[in-house]
Structures are given as structure tokens and as C-alpha cells.
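Forum: Protein Structure Q&A
Topic: Joint prediction for protein chains with partners

I've read a bunch of threads here and the consensus seems to be that you should model interacting components together rather than docking separate models afterwards. I'd like to see that in practice. Below is the full input, 436 residues plus whatever partners are listed. Could one of the regulars post the assembled result?
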Amino acid sequence: MADKTETSSGKTFTLTNDQTGDKWVLPVFDGTIGPATIDIRSLYEDTGHFTLDPSFTSTASCKSRITFIDGDKGILLHRGYNIKDLAEKSSFLEVAYALLYGDLPNQKSYAEFSKNITYHTMVHEQLQFFFRGFRRDAHPMAVMCGVVGALAAFYHDSLDISDPKQREISAHRLIAKLPTLAAMAFKYSIGQPFIYPRNDLGFAENFLHMCFAVPAEPYKVSPILADAMDKILILHADHEQNASTSTVRLAGSSQANPFACIAAGIASLWGPAHGGANQAVLEMLAEIGTKDRIPEFIQGVKDKKYRLMGFGHRVYKNFDPRAQIMKETCDKVLAELGVTDPALEIAMELERIALSDPYFIERKLYPNVDFYSGIILKAMGFPVSMFTVLFAVARTVGWVSQWKEMMEEPSNRIGRPRQLYTGAAQRDYVDINKRT
Ligand code: CMC
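Posted by a regular:
Agreed with the consensus. Here's the joint model:
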């Protein structure tokens, strides 16, 4: 397997205190590829100093063998495989297997894994009553935060996180049940009956069936749409130590159960700077309305009144390889459905203008994965409020893989960042009747 455990490169990094002239020699670790890391684990003990990196722009929070991103070159690898190859040649469940177990499956292990996942697609019948407690107009991400966390109340037999078998069953349950819960959230919001999973269908096909079938008549999922959904799931499956994944890892580091950890990840994903961007893109395109209003909108972005949603990325500073595949998928879906969406025309014109405008070029702002995904999902019949839920369905695979990897790490300890305290120093307590 092409990976590497933590190995010192033999190189060091010397830190000098300008005031005292004291020097500290810090070990440097090399990954398989990517930037080397300076090991500062003993820095506080040795120097009495913390490091300050509030949004983690220069901090590796963990070692991982799962996903590699080179943001300057626009490279995304899962277990060493290029995202383009995976999206074009693999199924989502093959990618899920690779993320969880380290390499793509052979035919036998793939058949076994698919069987294990489909075995867990149903949810406890009692769970439907949780849905009924929500308002029909609740945002489905709010519903997902609740019902995914609630899984811990039902699957007591896989909550012992010290048992690798139970951890694996929880991982399978989460991957299998998320589409079922997401489809239930959708059906609940439109007042239709829940549709049970069908294990004779593929993963993406079954999901679309649960979303769009009704009990009154047969429903056949278009193979082109099933294929597009499978690609969307692959493109969102994992993305290294992003906000939601780091949330899952931090929650898991306290030894919380996996269902609670994934619910925490869903909450973090919801924000418009992260997974919520796919919803925000469509809202933005609707607000722009017509192509002639684009220049005015772009000016507003430059005046920093708002951001161009679906553009920019903390790591990708050249292009987001997922966005290119998403655009191709978008074209196929619109052609299959015969949809001519004015939002697509606005999106393409926005992209053209932004990519040639110095404001965006200087800041290295390119379309990200969320720029085109919303247009596809809208064409498939999903309301905008469901877009981030679909992201969560896919990312659950990444979350559980990262959680599993962390739990298998013998040196795993609770994550506990420190701070630069800027509040009041210790002061005397003043009685309430003496306070001004
Ligand atoms: N539109 C306009 N300006 C932007 C944008 C944008 N989308 N993104 C960044 N900038 C500007 C920002 O104003 C700043 O300019 P200046 O140097 O003049 O102050 C500069 O670019 C750097 O911005 P930043 O906020 O330091 O960048 P970041 O790395 O912290 O933020 C980001 C990354 C993804 C949160 C941000 O680009 C953004 O808000 N994008 C829109 C939301 C979005 O599409 N999110 C989905 C990300 S991909 C999927 C996912 O991760 O879930």
C-alpha cells in the first residue's frame, strides 16, 4: 500500500528567541507527498510558548493516509487515486471502500462490502416518529442533525468504540442509513409517505428511488441520473481535514459515539462557507435573475458587500478538480432532462467574467465543487434546502473513514487546543451593589 507512517526526515527546524537568543531544534517530518511538517508537540513544555493559528492555515492537526490535496496544482487524491479516475471509472461504494479500508476493493471484497452496506439501509421503524415531531417547513439539515444523532439511541449494539468490529458496524450503518434518513427528510418536507430502501438497486439509484418514488405507482430511476448522482457522491466523499471533518475528529477524540460525531459533522457542514454553499449558489443565481445584472453583482462582490458563492477555496488556489467534473456532469443531466435552466446561463457568464477579472485572478478565486452541483440537483427535482443534505450523505463516508482512522491510532488523545488569552487579567471581585 502506497502510504507512509510518521517518519522523521532527519531534517530539523531551528527556532530562535530574539529576546534571549535561546535556540530550540525541532524535528521535521516528511509525508509521502506534500509539505513537510515541523513537530511542535513539545514546544510549550520546552519554551513556554503556544503557537497561534486560529483558522489552521499552517497547522496539520493529524497524520492521515486517506486524502491528499495539492491546492496549487489542483490535485485531489483518495488513497493515492486521482479524483478524475475515481469519478470516471469507479462507483461511489468502491470509493467508500477505498476510503474506509485503504485501497480499492477487488470483486469479492466489493460484493461483500455492498452486501454489508445494503444490509443496513433500513432505519428502526420508531425513527419515523422523530420526523413527525418536526415542523414540515423545518430545514432538512436541522432534521438531519437531530435524527443522525438520535441513531445512537437505537443501535446500542455498536456503540462500544473500543471494539473494532462495533466501530466497523457503526461505520457501515452510517454510510447505509444516511441516504434513507435524507430521503425521509425530503419526503417529510413535501408531505409524501416515506419510501423504504430497495436493496436490489444500486446505492445512488436506491437513494433517488427513495426520494422520488411514490407508493401509488412504479418509478424507474433514469440510469443517467443515477450515474450523475453517483458521481456527485464521489466528488463530495472526502476532502482531507476540512471544517466538518475536523469537527468529527475533535468530537471523536473525546471518545463520543460515532453517531454523535457524525451529527456534529453535519452541523458544521451546514454553514454557507462550507457545505451550505451549494444552496447559497442557487439563491445567489436567483437573486441575480438575469445576465444583464451580473456586472452590478460583480461590483457588489468587489465592494465586499457579499461573496461570489461557489467561488474560492482555502486550499485550491488554481482550480478545484471536482468543479470541472461537476460541470461535465451538469451538462449531461440537463441534456438528459431536456432542461434549459436560466440559472446555468447566469452561472456560465459569471464564471467567464470572474475568471477574466483581475479581482478574482489576484485572489486566486476559482469555481469550487459547489458552483455547479446545485444546478444539477435542481434539475433532478431537489429543492435548494436539500442540497447540503446530499453533501452530508456523501461526506459521511469521509467522516467515518477519518473517524475510524483516528480511532485506530494508538496515540490518539483528546484534542485540546489552547488560546492566546486577551481578556481581563485576574482582578478583585466587586459586590453587585458596589458595581458602577
Ligand atoms: N467571493 C469574493 N471574494 C472572495 C471569495 C468569494 N467567494 N472568497 C474569498 N474572497 C476574497 C476575500 O474577500 C479576501 O479578499 P481580501 O484579501 O481583499 O480581503 C480573499 O479572497 C481571501 O479570502 P479568505 O476569506 O481569507 O479566504 P478563505 O480561505 O478563508 O475562505 C472560503 C475560503 C471557501 C470560505 C471562501 O472562498 C468563501 O467564502 N467562498 C464562498 C463560499 C463557498 O463557495 N464555499 C464552498 C467551499 S468548497 C466546498 C466546501 O468546502 O464545503
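The beta strands are 7-16, 23-30, 37-38, 67-70, 75-78, 81-82.
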